[in-house]
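Exam revision sheet. Question 4 asks you to relate a sequence to its structure. Input first:
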Amino acid sequence: MTVPSERVSGLCVRGFNSDLKIDLPVTYTKDCIPLDITHIPTRETARKWKHLSEIVEKMQPLRDCEVGLLIGYNCSRAMAPRQFITGGDDEPYAIRTDLGWSIVGGNPQYGDPFKSHICYRTITKEQPSLRPVDAVRVLESDFKDFADDEAGFSQDDVAFLNAVGIGIQKNELGHYEMPLPFKKRPILPNNKEMALVRLNHLKRKLQRNQDYKEQYIKFMEEIIESGMQNKLMMKVVREKHGISLNAHLLTGPDLLNGLLGILLRFRQHPVAMLCDVEKMFHQFHVAKEDRNFLRFLWWKGGDLNSRPSEFRMKVHLFGAASSPGCANYGLKHLAKEYSTVLPEGSQFILRDFYVDDGLTSVESTAQAIKLAMEATDICAKGGLRLHKFISNDRAVIDSIPEAERAPNVRDLDLSFENLPLERALGVQWNVEADEFTFLVNLKMQPATRRGILSTVASLYDPLGFVAPVLLKAKGILQEMCRHGIAWDDSISKELLPQWIKWKEELVDLTRISISRTYVPSGFGRILKIELHHFSDASTRGYGQCSYIRFKNERGDVHCTLAMGKSRVAPLKVTTIPRLELTAAVVAVQASALLKRELLFQDMTEYFWTDSCVVLGYIKNEARRFHTFVANRVQKIHSASATEQWRYVPTEENPADHASRGLTPKELLASNWLSGPKFLWERELVMPNDKIPEISIQDPEGLKDASLRTFFYEAMAIVNSRPLTVDSLCSPRDPLPLTPNHLLTMKPARALPPPGNFVPEDVYSKRQWRQVQYLAEQFWSRWRKEYLANICSRQCWREPRRNLQMGDIVILKDDDAPRNEWKLGRVLETMPGKDGLVRKVRLMLGDRRFVRKGEQITKTSEVERPIQKLVVLVEAAKD
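Answer key, structure tokens:
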């Protein structure tokens, strides 16, 4: 066991009856010394032995404290004996040192033969002293750079890399061989019986389907003849008594290149190329000592009536938890091994491969041909075959051996026929036109949460070209979640028309095409490259879009969408400024991705938003914000400079589409794919609008005039409560008396203005709507609290009075307009079986003015439970 300790120098000790000081050597601290005072001999110990009686008075009494210091034999001066007193053979003896008398042996406390004692051996190892550079690093730790979003390797990841890195070697067949990376080498039970049971299940399945049987047998025979003998993932993942091989395997770290980064670089240059590693997992062999873990059963020759034979797999197989990590590690290990001999091919494999798919773009045909040759040679040296080559350049395809080309171009007449459609990491690529397109081929899915999610996920769009279109479908999914609709329950009648309309409009996605390259052919030498990031948010969602702006030597400008993101707003009500700030953070994250993945040099960068509140947040350096705002402002500051942020009007902000959603037709007519018009100007005029300082108040705060108006509205609400009532049905009788009558000396009631006021009005630029919404909120709370106050519950203290005929009551109505208190007179009581009134019949009076100014009163009768009533005036007793 290792315990931390500190070194202490300069200590000295002396005996109680001595003036001689003894310097101690270097001493080490410990939190707890495993010794207590019962270990120390005392005067009582000396009295038990006749030969020690002369030192009884010389023994020091024990103090009521813990042992604080242990002196070892490395301090010989403190241990040097000055005098001995001995007794019989099995009796203790006394020894005097410069520290005083002590007794060795014979302590009655430890004479019990049934007690055991443990002796400790300690080894001291000092850490190296702190170097000056280390001291500086500690002092400046608050200023070090760190990436919060990048996770480091776990202990399991390190163990995986150590196991595979030490065990990887090239075998006699030219393939890399790696061990199975176990967490701890297991002892697994014999599961042959279970394998036989599963084989019999497979046999019955094959006998029921002749076509499936023929394909399966052909597949297995090809595997056995090839010598790989793998692809039975069920033998890897199936558990026996709760134990599976996958549970003992390390998955390893994520060694994949970023998919978005590969696609972004795929658009960078005019000549594009795709390729694939054939059966990549099967090209990396398993170490011989681990192959017994990969046994399986099969009928030799495909004869289902013969006795099954046992086989061992020699390669890393599909279904094993460690196989993806081993294959990716092996491919990168191979590329690094030949990085000095074939640098371009090595860099292509290291940077632009996603699992077994390689995508890249280069400047010229010659460079693409050379790159294909180098990558093929590197893979061949590791036993891998690079094939399925395709390019938008016919000369590149022609340079590739026919057997190594993609299947759909092997028999193609490159002189006359058009190049086909191809998928580049799932994105539809029209190779002939060199454009990205969308193929809408929706499967029949039920209108349930599961079916809708499946439909939305089938429209694969990693770069966000049609993100505004998908936002509407995501909003429908979110609404289903809000209403608690289960996975396989049908969509509600209210949402069904929206879903049907969205699906019908998807056919227009086939009209959308995006150039694969950022700049058109023949654009010329590029002198200036700029990145422009736009962000926006609404109650529906938030998002961003990033554009790359190029300017050539002639002054021509070209602008194109690099990537976009569109996300639905959270279910929890969030203020618009906070959503806008979150969108700005997403824009900053997109900026970091583009700068990290793109290979352009000297890019100038700008950020655009139509929210003055966000701009105020970013510029403000003095105010302490709430945690939510402060964290996001910090992220923005860490990845961008304040002077990079600009204001853009809402009508020119393309990110507005990402926050509200578009139909495919609207997207084609919008500036989403091309960017705002001002980016296409030869000279980009930057606005000189000063970013407003954010006020001390929050953006939803009121100005002085608005606050005074709100106070007046609140006073009118509080003073509109009725005090007394004489009559409800006669137009000649006065209205119920309220405090407003006494304060304003006016009989009229202040009615609320027409309109529906929503939470977003708190952030409205119209201060009038802001005040009216706050007044509505005050009215709602005041009505509830006032009615609860005058109707205090007495049921646990004393019997409650029954409602009686003639009582004047207030109706609890959550939909009542502001300042309106619905009053009624009890006409009839309806008691329950226990004799207590549970329901009453009321007469309501509604006074209105006709056009000529004449006041009329309409009466109506309703039944209400007593829980919805509050007694204002009790009926007079007879």
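Marking note for examiners. The first strand starts at residue 7 and ends at 8.
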